[in-house]
Write a structure and sequence with these properties.
The chain is 78% helix and 0% strand. 31% of the residues are buried. The chain is built from 5 helices and no strands. Helix 2 packs antiparallel against helix 3 and helix 3 packs antiparallel against helix 4. The chain is an all-alpha fold.
Length: 160
Amino acid sequence: MKQLHIKVLVGLFLVAGVLAWAGARLWDSLGTLPGVPVAAPIVLALIAAVLAATAFSMRSRLRAQRERRPGAKGVDPLVAARAVVFGQASALVASLVAGLYGGVGVFLLTSGIEVEPRRDQAIYAGLSVLAGAAVVAAAIFLERVCKLPDDEDDAGATAA
């Protein structure tokens, strides 16, 4: 399984942001721009909390297993792999969603937020971007927790 790269996540965020900004400008010129849902930052924050809780749980279980504590519950490798895949998928989707809401938020900020509904939409978009960043951070933390140590024997065998 390949490791997440920050460059890919940032690139996805930026491309989605630019496209969302352009789309929001076009949509607003043709009619009423759809609003940012209030639930968007809440759902993203819940996903970040689930990822962080999974990471902390696995970290403590792996630490207990490494220290050979009596009664320590080990981590099934398949469960760890599934958690990492969930984290990576969540990070990719959160980067895309945060970019979309970021682009809409930038449009709302530059088009004037004197009107209260637009101000509220800009706040919801900003909170969505922050919650998306929290999802990415929790996913990267989960990936680091579940990372296997490098196998030094394989490196020596290929050199010989």
